[in-house]
Design goal:
Layout (H helix, E strand, L loop, with lengths): L6 H25 L7 H5 L4 H18 L6 H32 L11 H8 L19 H19 L3 H15 L7 H6 L5 H16 L4 H18 L8 H18 L8 H8 L1 H22 L7 H40 L1
């Protein structure tokens, strides 16, 4: 099993996070009255950054789990590692957003405080927000609800089955297949959405890479025309029902191609570093973008700046804040949480 950090995956994480940030930056700039010429073209389909993250998540979990022992102790170690990685920063930022929602509600427009919505956000349970949309307090956190769901399935598989990777694959496919069988509630519709197949795609890549130490051309070359045909057919326009086809398959191809070139090209070191900070960038930009937009609007009330310049400034500031968050919040909190959880588990 490979244990070293894969530069291709780190770079792809950085690109995915930047793409999402760019997508949201352009949307906010338009809302605030700036018109951009070039950024909208670059940001188009930026939502696919999320799908790339899901495929990468499935890949990483399969890679680090391949050939590892199973059972309750292995499941416990898996939970501790994932919880320490994901929860601390998300809970801190959710607390900050909740405090703003209570004490400065005007910062969120017409948003209203709802106790259950806050509790469900901390517990990674999908629920309706004040506008009737299934997102947590930090709106981009809906993706973490899927991540945690994937981790829960994997934990159960490690604790129960001798071949957890195969069991998770079956579970993910089964969830997607039962989705159209009946009209369910919020939780049913959320967790059975076909987007869960993106984790399955990542698990396939992770298993192949762990076994053969690369992605062979015989896998890549048939994928390119196949996914290209899908992109042409759907033109990357998607709904909640066809996202796996319209965006998930291109994301699968992107990860596969990145892995194919892992040892064939020299990867950009800055993007590798940004890949390390991609989780911080993904979470903090939900606050960084609107704050930066308000500050720039205060200094440029007549909108003399070009929209592209405004977007570039906001993206740069978002990246800088993400690096700071990674260094001073995410990494220390992850270490503390891991140590505390290990101590609690050994009691």
């Amino acid at each position: 099993m490979l244990t070293k950090q894969l530069d291709s995956i780190q770079v792809l994480r950085a690109i995915a996070a930047l793409w999402v940030v760019m997508f949201h930056t352009v949307g906010n700039a338009t809302t605030y009255g700036w018109t951009s010429q070039f950024m909208p073209s670059l940001a188009r389909h930026g939502e696919m950054g999320v799908d790339i993250f899901f495929v990468i998540s499935g890949f990483v979990i399969a890679l680090i789990s391949y050939g590892k022992p199973v059972g309750l102790d292995a499941a416990r170690r898996f939970v501790i590692a994932r919880a320490a990685r994901v929860i601390p920063l998300y809970w801190v930022l959710t607390s900050l957003f909740t405090a703003l929602l209570i004490f400065a509600p005007s910062a969120f427009g017409h948003a209203r405080f709802n106790l259950w919505h806050v509790i469900s956000s901390f517990l990674f349970i999908p629920s309706l927000n004040w506008a009737g949309i299934v997102v947590p307090v930090i709106n981009v956190g809906w993706t973490l609800n899927y991540e945690i769901w994937f981790y829960v399935l994997f934990t159960l598989a490690i604790a129960t089955f001798q071949k957890p990777i195969r069991s998770v694959m079956i579970a993910l496919v089964a969830l997607a297949l039962v989705h159209p069988l009946r009209e369910g509630g919020i939780i049913w519709n959320f967790y059975t959405n076909s987007i869960v197949l993106e984790f399955a795609g990542g698990v396939i890549l992770g298993t192949v890479y762990a076994k053969y130490k690369n992605i062979a051309p015989s896998i890549i070359f048939p994928l390119i025309p196949t996914v290209g045909l899908v992109i042409w057919q759907y033109d990357l326009s998607f709904t909640g029902e066809n996202r796996f086809i319209a965006l998930g398959l291109p994301a699968f191809l992107a990860v596969a191609c990145a892995l194919y070139f892992e040892n064939r090209i020299r990867w950009n070191k800055f993007l590798c570093s940004l890949g390390d900070a991609s989780y911080s960038l993904y979470l903090t930009h939900a606050l960084t973008i609107p704050v930066c937009m308000k500050l720039i609007q205060t200094a440029d009330q007549k909108h003399g700046l070009r929209g592209d310049i405004v977007c570039l400034m906001v993206i740069i500031l978002s990246v800088a804040i993400a690096f700071a968050c990674r260094r001073y919040l995410e990494r220390p909190m992850t270490r503390i949480a891991r140590r505390w959880l290990d101590q609690r588990a050994s009691v």
